[in-house]
Structures are given as structure tokens and as C-alpha cells.
Amino acid sequence: MLFFENDYGHGAHPAVLRRLCETNLTPQPGYGEDAYSENARRLIREACGAPEADVFFLAGGTQVNAVAVGGLLRPWEGACAASTGHINAHEAGAVEFTGHKVLALPQRHGKLEAETLVAALADFYADPNHEHMVFPGMVYISHPTEYGTLYTRAELTELSDICKKYHISLYMDGARLAYALAADKDLTLPDIAALCDAFTVGGTKCGALCGEALVFPKGGPERFLTLIKQRGALLAKGRLCGAQFEALFEDGLYFELGKSAVALAMELRKGLLARGFALFEDSPTNQQFPVVPNALLPELGKCVAYSFWEKRGEGESVIRLATSWATRPEDVEELFKILDNMTVGG
Amino acid sequence: MLFFENDYGHGAHPAVLRRLCETNLTPQPGYGEDAYSENARRLIREACGAPEADVFFLAGGTQVNAVAVGGLLRPWEGACAASTGHINAHEAGAVEFTGHKVLALPQRHGKLEAETLVAALADFYADPNHEHMVFPGMVYISHPTEYGTLYTRAELTELSDICKKYHISLYMDGARLAYALAADKDLTLPDIAALCDAFTVGGTKCGALCGEALVFPKGGPERFLTLIKQRGALLAKGRLCGAQFEALFEDGLYFELGKSAVALAMELRKGLLARGFALFEDSPTNQQFPVVPNALLPELGKCVAYSFWEKRGEGESVIRLATSWATRPEDVEELFKILDNMTVGG
Amino acid sequence: MLFFENDYGHGAHPAVLRRLCETNLTPQPGYGEDAYSENARRLIREACGAPEADVFFLAGGTQVNAVAVGGLLRPWEGACAASTGHINAHEAGAVEFTGHKVLALPQRHGKLEAETLVAALADFYADPNHEHMVFPGMVYISHPTEYGTLYTRAELTELSDICKKYHISLYMDGARLAYALAADKDLTLPDIAALCDAFTVGGTKCGALCGEALVFPKGGPERFLTLIKQRGALLAKGRLCGAQFEALFEDGLYFELGKSAVALAMELRKGLLARGFALFEDSPTNQQFPVVPNALLPELGKCVAYSFWEKRGEGESVIRLATSWATRPEDVEELFKILDNMTVGG
Amino acid sequence: MLFFENDYGHGAHPAVLRRLCETNLTPQPGYGEDAYSENARRLIREACGAPEADVFFLAGGTQVNAVAVGGLLRPWEGACAASTGHINAHEAGAVEFTGHKVLALPQRHGKLEAETLVAALADFYADPNHEHMVFPGMVYISHPTEYGTLYTRAELTELSDICKKYHISLYMDGARLAYALAADKDLTLPDIAALCDAFTVGGTKCGALCGEALVFPKGGPERFLTLIKQRGALLAKGRLCGAQFEALFEDGLYFELGKSAVALAMELRKGLLARGFALFEDSPTNQQFPVVPNALLPELGKCVAYSFWEKRGEGESVIRLATSWATRPEDVEELFKILDNMTVGG
User: Fold this and answer.
1) What is the ipTM of this complex?
2) What pTM does this model have?
3) Is C14-252 CATH 3.40.640.10?
4) Considering only CB atoms, which chain B residues are within 8 Å of C70?
5) CATH level 3 topology of D2-6+254-345
6) B53-68 pLDDT, tens per residue?
7) CA distance D200 to chain A (A)
8) How far apart are CA A239 and CA A26, in angstroms?
9) Which residue of A has its CA nearest to D67?
């Protein structure tokens, strides 16, 4: 069975797991004060070119979004997000559980566009009743988006400028950041650190067993450790995340595994197009969204683990094929063979 | 440096880590639907003698308490707990963050006694204004308690009977359950499953890298997976907990590592008493609380990692010494030597 | 200055105020156990044809919505509402503050249509990831809507049937219910009680100083009084709402004042159309939404208090003119004179 | 039937009701922007000697406490309060519903003493684990307390100094403030305004139909109107509170009605002591707490409405007798006659 279902189906990148093994018997303080977390924070600060950054390690993606969004907002504020944004659609209301509204805005290619944002903000303040409404207190974007697409450096700069003008925070959900950085040389980690008030460097979907690094390039909110604890997100064995991120950011592993996955995704993309499959979104990252005739799906499902995305008209569906550090070139080759046989025999 | 600071200072028990390595390259579905979690749930159900139990794996202790307590309570209810209970004192208000009051009650040896509970419940319902007050909706106990003490089978039965009479849930925080089970043969895991509505089987402090198993012996609350997700506690790589608990509950490792730690703690206890140290609480589990002259602390701290617990009068302090799977008999011997030299030379 | 700004600009209907004066010196128990509240509940049950109904009196509209919606939902659920629904747009996130998402759906004429709702529900349950999403747990509608429009009996029946099929609650925000009942003889209060699980009978905007009656025709949720108290909405002097609703529902005052306001609104509507003003929505209730050239607004504002609603293209605006129990026929005549002079001289 | 059950059993002081009648037909803007609220704010600022004060009117006591406490605290903070404080004991967990813990501290005569507070704060910061605990973020006191007792000027100054030292807010729940001000000439309203960061001037229990004025002497928190709206506490007809507080603070009515009630309570106290009744607390305000043999209660209850407070040993109970603006000297005389007859004939 070929595995293209997602990018979190395997354990950890071998180098990450090796680090856990090597460090296993060395006792360390808890709650993020261990030497590995300390070192990982230093490595991330360096990679971000943000020596003042505060870095926290949390276990999961929905968790880090809820803690960061809930922690950055003031009580009367909500978070602007594309309607397709993960916090709006697929986190079971985790942000609302912290008492805050997600202010859903129209998206294009999964992205929140500057003109959409600026119009929403202008309309809000122009409304004479706005004191009776939820104040837009921050902007949430995901990069790559839920559709695999990317913000350009110009786009992110524009969003950042708008946020600065309105004195609101810009937060980037980087659950799959490794693939964004690998796909686009134009927008670097230091750029992101310079343009966002907070962002995550995803581990779970980028080679770790678990863990997301939450980075506040200009320093974090007051008493953030206590806030993390209050929201049930402070790991006793902080070393678990610390050692993993140390391995990911030493010697550039995070960037390397992103590159490898994206390169194979581009092979995949080329091969899919060559075989006549349309793409639902033109994604430059590790998730590809081919449109597939429904008739092919049962047979495909016998040898390939994929994700169903959504129906498209009567006879077709969008599926998601994802690569990761665990995908090998021969997996892509094998997938093509299967598709070729299916197209012939289907 | 000897390490007696706590029971979560090392990584994972080698067998647990080995399992993560062995399973690393096998792709699995996410969010707890992997084969390891499935198997771990089965093993835990067996160990509990509760074939109908629902079992969920969450990453950490404060998290699982907040999700379970918040999930078991109805909106107008609070959780009764000993004032020293972890949810009342040391979780940064995580239960209150879910909108519920912790109804703190007096403790004795860290335990909530049946007569204290029954008086509180009777007083509540006798108060003509009780509709203007927080309803007691469940009982939280920790076992072992924060002082290392244990509920006897008779005590737990009594609490359970009171809860049944008042139609409220009984929840046991078993963050250190391995040590309780090892210390007291009278109260078994099947007993706990029969007497409690929900309880945790702690992993983080009992040999895992992370993870707590939340067990509902008679079946869990409705839509509990969504509730876990909503509260940011659903791990994408559920396999991380699944594989670890599989290793812990195959071949009885969980019980074995508890026994080893408790046996060494009993050595420690004996040696401390023999050397004239009083014990703040007489703990039968892996945490020991000797009373130590303040004058000894600086020197002790040079060679032994311990936890400061609290001041006691002018010249003494209570400290905590904890054993775990990682503690070796020679560590205890070495500690005694240090103490002997200190007592002589201090 | 003519007052058409809203329907809550004056004090109370004289008969309501008189009742407060008459009852003022008679001592009564607090928290809704007074004789007036008791009697008002009886009168409302009768008017609803719902002898089993539970009725609670709360002070304000946003408050009663937040308490009812938050109280009806289970923790993992959200409330479906038209995007223009008051809880989604104009209550400062009060529902989200209780931890629940408002699931905004497209509206038509301010209404949530049955086909929109059924599609949303079907899509939700068809999504294989729906356990990671907010469950639709109830439907919120306002009647009249924020645009003054009304659900027909057939429409409400359809929504009610869908809710029954999906086992979710149907809640109607009747902040302006008096005007709905006056405008449409087809959908009566007993119909509403038969079709909804909960609804409000608005007082603040229908002749009272304050107060909304929250009606659960088939009986209210468990411990609802405590829930009201918990959310800061239980009035110590419950008599304040009780006496007012007694006056409103004795001798049919609630229906009469609705009729008077709607009759004048229809005069207004006729006169506006006759004078060539387009209507933004064709409202059969006490709120009328004429489209007015921006050039007229400053002069109009000198003699008439109106509400600005929204801009419409370059040169025009939608304004709201509202009638109430305090509006007199001569006020409408006077308004027409002002408009006639303006059209001539403007 | 004599009414001594509480101080909110009647409607409003006649002058307050008269004001509602006089202003009834004058249209006003909503949401607190009416002329009466404006004037009432001015009058309160003057009475407080706090020209910079922000003043908000909310409907009820639990509501204003939850909004103020929840609004003053930062997310990781809780409110210190005497264990008998209203927010801890009798508000159904309204503060916890906003996500914050009430940090209950021992009380004496219903008061939080400076040394108790300072010890709690010192202990908190001395605890090396305090980052894992709820930070004390404010102090809540009630004045008069739930036992009718009062803070002296010296005591309030001491609490205020401690709060300043620890950079936390001091909030006074003045639900019955009129009686405190009448009973103690030493601690004036300007003193309170100078020493507290926020306090309420209670209306509901001091002559109004409803309404509490929330005063921030040095200016209120940012966007507080929106926060009030978010928590369901913003009245559309702000005039209802505005007109009432205007009447209460014009010509010193608030102080006069307090004096009258306290003078009668002191008569009551004297007469109770003269008749040999012990007092549970020595209250200088409008609530008196005599200890009464249980055998007398049934007969007393036939002619006097009183509140049961608590049992005291085997044969006695504490009851509460409260005076208000509606209590007449002859009511007290009549009560004494009843007691005299009962004592004779009981």
C-alpha cells in the first residue's frame, strides 16, 4: 500500500527519533527548562534572525492555535481569518471555546487577500454601531494554506502593513511551514519573523512525533507560560519537544526534509498533469489536489492511501495526495504506474 | 549528580522508546485510529476488567484533568476536590478556564474523606439558597495524592457510594497510578474501574515520554472526541501515545516499573527514618517527604537534585525525593552515603 | 423633533408604568418568585396555548440570547444562524463568550431558508471529518428579522421539521415579536409555541422598560434558574419584569400595541412609496427601510430622529424608520410634510 | 405581615419611581447615551469627588460583579476574596464562568484582613512553582460585608496599599453601599473612590427597581462598553438606570434612605439586645442577625417575614432581619410587640 494520505502518517524523521534515544537517560528539568529546549529555542531564534524572539513548544496544532489566538486577543476582540482557515473550519470551535469569535472573511486560493482584509477593517470602523460588535483584534493566516498555496513576500508584507496600521497582530499558522520554506525561496523564515507578530513552526506534520514551536519574534505576551499551563498545553517533559526541534534545526534538517517532500510533490504534480488530471488548486507545496473520476476511486483506494477532499460536480472528486520526509522517489513512480494501469484498464 | 527531583526528569522507559523506534516507519491513520492505539485501548480494557470502557489518550496531566472535569460537568456544576488537589492548587486555573468552579474541601493526609464530602453535599442541599450556588457535580480525587498517600479500597468504596447516592461522577486523577498499584495490592485496577466513573492511567510520570490514558469504565460521554478536539487536546499522531501505552501494558511493564520505583522508595524511607529524619507525610509510594534542617540544603543540593516542598517552622524544610523507573538501587545507596557524610560533617 | 429612530427610545407604555406604581409598596419574594411574575407566567402560558411551558424573565435581548443559546447547546455544538442574525452580527460575540460558535449561513431577506439549512446540515454529516468540526446543535432565527421581514407559518413549519429530523433545537429571537404577531395573522403565538423549542417574547422593544420573556413551551432545561444566575442574568427584583409582563399580557395590551405600531408603519410605507422612495426591504412590520438620497439626510436629521442603516451606491443611503406604541398618527403626518417640503425645496 | 426579610422586597423609593414617570414620554438615545444617564454619571462623579471617573450602569449585582471582576483580570489571574464573599459563595460560579478562579481566603467578621491578604500574596510569590498557579490579580471585598460589617478607613487604606504594592486592583462590591455610608461617617464615598480601583454603588438593594453603578474612579478599562455588551449586560433602555440614579443622587436621596434604614436597624439592634437575643455578628448596618430559639421560629414566621441564615448548635438559629427605605418606625415597634408576646407566651 502506497501512503499519500497525509504528512503525519509515519512516526518521526529518523534523525529526530535518534535524538530522543540519545538523550533519553539524561535527567533534565521539566516544563521547558531542559537543555534541549533551551538549545532548540536558540537554534530557532538563529534560523529566524530574531535574537529577541520568545519560543514556546506545544504538542499540537489546534492547541497552539487556540492558545496563541486566545492569548493574543483582548477579551472584546476576534480573529480575522479566511473562511477556509483551519481555525474557522476544522478545529471544532477551539478558538470560540476560549471565548473569541473567528471573523470569517472570503478567501481566494485559500488565502486572505489584502483588499478583503482592508475592506473588512474599514467597514468595521465606519459602522456607527461597531462598539456593539466584535472588534477585529488580529489576523490569522495559514502558510501554506489549507489548499497548499503560499503567500508571496509582497502579499505578506501588505497584510503586515495593514495590521500595523490598525494596531492588530498578524499570526501565521505554520503547521506545514517546512514545505512553504522549501517551495518558495522568496519568503524566508527571517522574512516571516520580521513581518508577523507570532507564528508557528510546525513539527507534527514536518517530521516530528509531535510539537509545534510558537515564535514571538519581538517577545511574547506577559505570563505566557502560565497561560499555556492554564489551557492545558504545558508539557511536563518539555524535553520531548525540545530534543525533537533541536534535531530539526541542527544542520538544517527542517529545511532539507521540506525540500525533499516538495521535490517529490512537484514530480507528482508534473506526472498528474501529464496524465491529464486537472488540479483543483495549483499548489507549489507538498499537498497536491488532483481531480479524479469517481469511477477510479475504488480501485485507486486498493493500493494507495489518499484523502478524499470534496465532490466536484457529478462524476468527479478532488482528492489530496501528500508527500512528506517519508515519501521516496520510488513511491511516486509506483503511483504513476498504478495510475497508468488504471487509466488503461479502468 | 543524583536525580531524585521528580519522576518525569528522564525520557521514556527503554521498552517504551524501543516500541516507538520499531513502529516508526509503518504508516497509520491519525487522531487515535491507528493500530497501536486500538491495541493499547484493548490492553487497558483488559487490565481494568472493563470490556465496555472507552479509552482516550491525551498528552498531559493538566490537560486531561481539564478535559475530563470540564467534560463531565454540566454547565451549572463544579468539582469537589481536596484543597490540596492538583486541579485546585497547581494547574493555573485550568478547570476554571473551562467555566467551572473547583469546590475546595478540607483534606487530611492529602485525601478527601468521606465524612467531609458527605457533610458538604448535605449542607449544600440543606441550604435554601442552593439554587444560587454552584452545584457539586462530581468528585475529583488524586491517587496517589499530591502527598503520596493512597485511598484504601474501603475509602474509595465509601466515596463511590456517596457519589452514586448523589448522582454525581467520581473521577480519579491517576497521574502516578503505577506507584499506587505497586504500593497497595488491596486496591486493584479493576477495583478502580468498578468504583470510578472516570480515571486516568498516567504515562508521563510513569515511564512514557508523554501521555495519559483517560478511561471511562462504563463508556464515555457523548461526542467526547470532538470535545477533546475543541479543547486542543487531540493529537494528530495518536500513534505516539498508542505505541507507548501498548508497550506499557503489554507484559505488565506498567506494573513492573511501578514496583521497582516503590521498592526503592521504601528503601529510601527506611534509610531516612534510620538516619533520624522525620517524614512530613508517611507515603507508601514513590514520593518521600523528609524534613531536613535548612542548614543541610545547600550542601545536599550540590550532589542531589531534589524538590523543595515547603518551609516547616524556623530551621527546617520539607523536601521531596522521588523515585521512578530510572532510579537504580545504587542511587539510593549513594544518597545515603551523602546524607551520612553531611550529617557527620554538616 | 420627530422620533422614528428606534422602538426603544421612550420609557414604558403608560399601562405598564402604572402597574409598577400600583404594585410598588407591596413586598414580594425575590428572584422571580413574586406574585406578579407568577401571574405573568400564567398569562403567557395561556396566550401561547402551552400549559406546560416554563417561562423566565431576563432583563435584555443580548443577555437572553446568550443565556438561551448557551444553555441549549451542548459543549461541542454551535448555533446555526443567518449571517445577518443578531447573535452573529450585533451582540459583540456574546454567544462566543459562552464558548460556542455561531455557524453563519447565507440569508435571504434576512431569513434563514429551509433549503439553506438542510444543505448545511447534510453537508456537515456527509463530511468524513465532521467530528473535527463544530456540530450544528440548534437553529437561531429572529422574527421579525433584523430587516423587519417575517417567516410564514409554512416556512417556520419547514424549519421546525428539519430541526426535529436532526434532533436539534429551534430558537426564535422575538425581541420585536409584538410587531410580528400584529402584522401576520397566519402565524400565531400558539403556532410559534408549537413549532419552536424556545423563543422570546420581547418586552424592551415592545412597550416595557426592560425585560424579555424566555419561553420553553415543552419545559425548560434542567437547573435553568441556576444557569441564569451563573450568567449574571437573574434579577433580584424579579417583580420588575413580572409586573410589566403582567400588564402587557392582561387584556391583550401586547397585541394591541403591536397593532397600533404596525398600522402606522404601513401608513408610513404607503406614504414613502407614494413619494417615490424605494424600500430596501419590503417589511410588513414596524421597521421601514427607505432608500434616501444622501443630499436629503442633513436636512432630514434636523427635524427627524432616524437610524442610518447602510450606504447604497454613491448617492444614496438606506435609513431605518421605526414606529412603536409611542408613535402617534400625527407624527407620521408630520413626517410626510417634512419629506414633501424637502423634496420640493431640497 | 411585617416585612424584614430583605432590602429588595419592595419596588422603588417613591421619588425614584416618580422620576421614571416624569421622564417616561421623552425619547432618548439608547445604550446609556441618554441625558439621564449622563446626568447621573455627573452626579456620581461629584459625590465621589472623582471628576475623571468612568461610570457604567448595569442591571444586577451578580452581573456587575462578574463583568467587573472578569474585566479587570488578565487571563492568567484570579480574584482574592474572603471565603464568605458573595462572588465566592452565592453567585453560582459567575466569576468562574468568565474563566477566572476566585482565590478564597479566610475571613473574620466577613472581612478580608490585611494580614491575611499580605500573607497570601507573599506566599504565592515565594512559591517556586507559582508560575503553575493562578496569579492573584485583584482583591474583591464587599462593603458592607455579607455579615453587615464594615471596613474602617484604616483597614481599607491598608488593603489599598497592599494592592498598590503588588500592582493589583482593589474592587469593592457596594451592593448595599447606602447603608455603609450611613453607618460610618469615617469612611466616605470620596475615600472609597480614592482607595479603590473600582466599586459599585448598589441600587437594587438601596431603593431602585434595578441597577448598580460601576465606578472606575481613575477611568475604566479599554473598550469596556463592548465588554459589557459581550457579557449580555448592556441595557438598550439605559434610561431606566440613568433616571433612577439621577433621582438617587440628586438632593442626597441615596444618603438619606441609607440613614433612615440604618437608624431603624439600630433601634432593632437595641431592642433585640434588650430582649436578651444574642447577635451572631455585631452589624452596624441595615442587616441584623439575632440568634433565635428554634421553638420561636414557626410562630414568628406567622407575622414576620425574615430570612433564615444558619443553624447554631442544637436549639437555636441565626436569622436575618433587614431594614430598607420602606421600613417604618412602627414596623420596628410592631416587631418588638410580637417578640414580647412570643417571649411571654412561647
Assistant:
1) 0.97
2) 0.97
3) yes
4) 75
5) Aspartate Aminotransferase, domain 1 (3.90.1150)
6) 999 999 999 999 999 9
7) 22
8) 10
9) A75
